[in-house]
Amino acid sequence: MVSREHKKAALHDNLQLLRSITNSHSKEDSSIIIDASKYIEELKQKIDLLTHDIAQSSSSYQNSYPMVMVETQEKGIRVNVYSERSCPGLLVFVLKVFEDMNINVLEARVSCTENFHLEALGIESEENRETIDTDLVKQSVLQAIQDWIESNDQEY
């Protein structure tokens, strides 16, 4: 009898853990499992998209060409730009894209020493309440990288 209650309590604890990991707001066990299944499918789609982006960027350019990933967040977007080598001045070109698109940068982390890595969280500006088009942001950042390369006569 104790074993059955122990198993039931352990199952409940595991379902609550699953509920918190998947950000489910469901109360019923079956709904938590359905939400977890949807969450796993979303993660698979993100992996497929990232794999496609990586394959596309490595087939189009050498490995040192900056890679760009843009994804939708709850209240804006997350932009990641990464290069295996340092890219002096590239940050200015990327930030200009945010300014031109009226995107306010809430938080940013940048590393420009041995390699270049920018991670920025942005939201629409107060006067521009439209949803940010992640594809347009990505294309604009890629164009900014191309402009930076041309302005510095970089070889990629």
Query: Widest sheet: strand order?
Result: 1-2-4-3
The backbone outline, from C-alpha atoms, is elongated
Look at the helices and sheets and give the structural class.
alpha+beta
Low-confidence spans: none
- H and E string: HHEEHEEH
Q: What is the CATH topology descriptor of the largest domain?
A: Alpha-Beta Plaits
Could you report the average pLDDT, rounded to the nearest whole number?
Answer: 84
Radius of gyration: 21 Å
**Which percent range describes the beta-strand content?**
15-25%
List keywords for this structure.
single chain; alpha+beta; Alpha-Beta Plaits; 4 strands
In short:
The protein is α+β, with helices and mostly antiparallel strands and 156 residues long. It has helices at residues 2-21, 29-60, 90-100, 134-151; strands at residues 67-73, 76-83, 103-111, 116-124. It folds into two domains: 1-60; 62-151, 2-Layer Sandwich (Alpha-Beta Plaits).
Structure, described:
- This protein is of the alpha+beta class.
- It has four helices and four strands.
- It folds into two domains: 1-60; 62-151, ACT domain (Alpha-Beta Plaits, 2-Layer Sandwich), CATH 3.30.70.260.
- The chain has a four-stranded antiparallel sheet.
- The protein is elongated and about 75 Å long.
List the helices and strands and how they pair.
Blueprint: H1 2-21, H2 29-60, E1 67-73, E2 76-83, H3 90-100, E3 103-111, E4 116-124, H4 134-151
Helix pairs in contact: 1-2, 3-4
